[in-house]
Specification:
Layout lengths: L4 H10 L6 H22 L34 H5 L5 E2 L2 E2 L7
Antiparallel strand pairs: 1-2
Amino acid sequence: MALTPDDVNTIARLARLDPSPAQREALLGQLNGFFNIVEAMRAVDTSGVAPLYTPLSSVQEVALRLRDDAVTESNQREANQRSAPAVEDGLFLVPKVIE
């Protein structure tokens, strides 16, 4: 996919930019370069490759640093809401700010 100078003009207008003709030419080259990289990446066969959660896992074994999903604190809702000016059914009541 290659962009044309008209595409760059449209993008500039939508972004409310007014680049000079030299900047438009540079943008055209940069955007087309980006799309060339994307096309090259699409050409790579990635079937059978497991996704990585970190780039380090491609070169070394990385253990997940996740903790057990367990409750570690007790429910302290009443204690936390004691200083609130207004509470109803366990919820903080606040003044209406949007009409």
